[in-house]
Amino acid sequence: MFELELSYSVLLVVCLVAACGFEFVNGFHDTANAVATVIYTNSMKPWAAVIWSGMMNALGVFLGGISVAMGIVNLLPVETLIDQNIAHSLSMIGALLISAISWNLLTWYFGIPCSSSHTLIGSILGVGIAYSFLPDAAGAAVNWTKATEIGMSLLISPLFGFSVTIVLMYFLRVATRKKAYGEDLFKEPKKNTPPPPWIRSILLLTCTGVSFFHGQNDGQKGVGLVMLILIGIVPGYFALNADFDTSKLGEPLHRLEQVMGSIDPAPLSEADRKMLEESKALGVQLRGELTQRVSTMPRDERFQIRKEILVLDRNLNKLLKKEEVRVSSSDQAVIKTNLKALRKVTDYSPGWVIVMIALSLGLGTMIGWKRIVKTIGEKIGKEHLSYAQGASAELVAASTIGMSSYFGLPVSTTHVLSSGVAGSMVASKGVKNLQPDTVRNILLAWFLTLPVVMMMAGSLFLLFRSIF
Questions:
Q1: How many CA atoms lie within 13 Å of 153's alpha carbon, on the beta-carbon side?
Q2: Residue 467 CB burial class (10 angstroms; 0-12, 13-18, ≥19)
Q3: Which of 252, 429, 439, 467 could cysteine-pair with 338, CB 3.0–4.6 Å?
Q4: Are residues 389 and 341 in the same domain?
Q5: Contact by Cβ (8 Å): 244, 264
Q6: What is the C-alpha separation between 142 and 155, in angstroms, rounded?
Q7: Residues spanned by the domain of 446
Q8: Cα–Cα distance between 414 and 34 in angstroms, integer?
């Protein structure tokens, strides 16, 4: 397979199966949040809810694009971490997968809504930081710019979910105060009794939204994980999009060269001048290399071309942020537009990867949802979840996840929805309406996930590297 020895082919298959396993666990771990309200309020039978949610998750993966996936791939500069020793690449992948899956299963077992996003990102950061301790480490092992963006997204999104749900609950109360149906909306669900049809429709709509956007965001994380595996182990086949005709990139590269040539190097520091000269040289080199379809390029050259494209992209984005670099707004737009065109050859995912992840996430949704549903429905607040609370929390969660996917940022469905439910409880009867033990466990998982998983992944990576 892919010109690998039999043993490495087997390990590649094991890694791909493990990545599907991660997404499968993600399905029953995270998607329980999406079905919690419709199941808990008796709006849908559990079997119907999880099947519907699973289908919507799969659809979200298919239609969600790959911007979040590439955010995951670009978080770890894989071109820095891997070399000609395939065992080193397997060390990286093995540490990522074992850490992420172990922590997900552990928190699921105890019924704690924990974020698969935190788990995966923590694993990636742990491997990158551990790599920097190796004596032969060269270059940055973590894309800290992307890490900062993702970190802010993971931090702000639960706070946004919490506060916006409180506001939404307030407006719902005001808007329905004198309406006949207002009382029904804020009632606690009756056991084995479905809500009125109009409430049921709203809850089904919000469940669909959370499920779809969860697939769009979390499904892309699985796609990004698989691409890390493929680029790390068989870069000759997957470093570049084999279906892309790179002869179309001649004009974008020419425009980039023109803008780089117009930059005055005099005010720049020595390091920035070197960066500018390196970028100019890379532009010329790439224009000579990108003259044909990727499928006709020698496989041993593709990964090097990927590195050149990513370095050019990184250098120009760094230079644009320098005050000394005087570039007009129109030239800045030229750089961004043409870099985006250039990145199409590196930022992609084969169709079979998307299908594989969509099926894994969809099937995972249909299993193991009960533990998390009970936590969401009964254990966050001291009162049982009402129709209004469930609908508000899910509407805010769906909107937050959808916006984050649009901007290519991964967020935690678990924490956004859990914080939304907590916000709805606070809006009902104040902070005293929260159950301290459950909130403490969720916050503990939130704070512990990143450092624990980073340490696990980093330690495993160093252990595997020492063995191999």
A1: 26
A2: exposed
A3: 252
A4: no
A5: no
A6: 19
A7: 6-237+350-467
A8: 9
Q: DSSP readout, 386-444?
A: PHHHHHHHHHHHHHHHHHHHHTT----HHHHHHHHHHHHHHHHH-GGGB-HHHHHHHHH
Residues 6 or more apart in contact with residue 22 via CB below 8 angstroms: 97, 100, 101, 104, 116, 120, 222, 225
The sign of the dihedral angle between the CA atoms of 224, 226, 230, 232 is: positive
Question: Locate tokens 């979840």: which residue?
Answer: 385
* 181/277 same-domain check: no
Please report the pLDDT score of residue 340 as a whole number. 92
**Per-residue pLDDT tens for 241-255?**
998 988 889 899 999
**Which residues in 420-439 are b (16+ Cβ under 10 Å) and which e?**
bbbbbbbbbeeeebbbeebb
In this predicted structure, the answer to whether residue 239 has a pLDDT above a threshold of 50 is: yes
**Number of domains the chain is built from:** 2
Phi-psi bin for 82: left (phi > 0), alpha (psi -120 to 50), beta? beta
Phi, psi values for residue 197, rounded to 5°: -55, -40
Tell me the two tokens of residue 55: 């289908």
The Cα–Cα gap between 373 and 368 comes to 10
Kindly report, residue by residue over 361-391, the tens digit of the pLDDT. 888 877 755 555 555 545 454 456 778 888 8
Compute the distance between CA of residue 71 and CA of residue 253 in angstroms, rounded to an integer: 23
Three-class secondary structure of residue 345 per DSSP: helix
Single-letter code of the amino acid located at 60: G
State the Cα–Cα distance between residues 283 and 287, nearest whole angstrom. 6
On whether both 331 and 359 belong to a single domain, the answer is no
Residues 436 and 327 in one domain: no
Q: DSSP H helical segments within 234-350, as ranges?
A: 235-238, 250-262, 270-289, 299-320, 329-342
Q: Is residue 196 assigned to a domain?
A: yes
- Give residue-wise pLDDT tens across range 152-193: 888 888 889 889 998 998 888 888 776 666 666 777 777 777
Closest alpha carbon to 419 in 440, 435, 441, 397: 397
Only one residue has tokens 């043993």, namely 7
State how far the Cα of 433 lies from the Cα of 384, in Å rounded to an integer: 10
